[in-house]
Structures are given as structure tokens and as C-alpha cells.
Amino acid sequence: MNTFHFEDTGHSPFGRSFDLFNDGSIEFFFTPGHSLGLAATIIRGESGQEVLLAADTGYSAKNINKLYTPGIVKNRGNAIQSVGWIREKSRESQVIELLPNHDPEVIPRERKISCVNA
What we know:
The relative contact order is 0.21. Helix content is 17%, strand content 25%.
């Protein structure tokens, strides 16, 4: 298993992220709060469209829109800041879908975006 370290990029609520392939196609954003090393992921297509995987930053899109943090957190202040960043990021025009891990309203389906490395 290879590990990675977040880099100081100015991206994410805490200014740290990691670009998996160094091409912008898959990027992890440091979003602590629920856990200490939590990351949200953006998958970015050639056209600039993005799918935002919120992980456990917020349990559902409704909770994120209301700025509700997960019930169990390591740091409530960080969780609030992370949820706020996810909410604002999800409202950007290039984000075509927000997918929190535990959202019962997410319907599994295929979403096609052209990848940068395709």
C-alpha cells in the first residue's frame, strides 16, 4: 500500500490537497472533522465537469445544505468548516453531482464524464 501526504495547495477548507495523477483528474481535499485525516474527492473530466465525493464530511446532501455535521466528530469546528466548504463547492456550476457516503437519496447510476487521461 502506498500512502500520500496532503500538500499545501491553497485548495480545500484547510488549504491542503493531493492530486493523484498530477493532472487534475482525481484530487483529494483535506476535510477533517468527522475524523482526523478525512478527504473528499473530486473527479474532474476533460470538459471541466466534476463529481464531488463528500465521503463522511456530511452524511447526506440535505445535511450538507443545512451545514449539519456528522453526529460523531473528532473536532466540531473543523467539521463545520469542512461541511461549509463541501456545500459551497457543490454549488459551483462545474459540479454535476454531490455524493455523500451515507445519503439514502442517492440512486446508484452511471455518470459519464470524459477523463483527462482517457
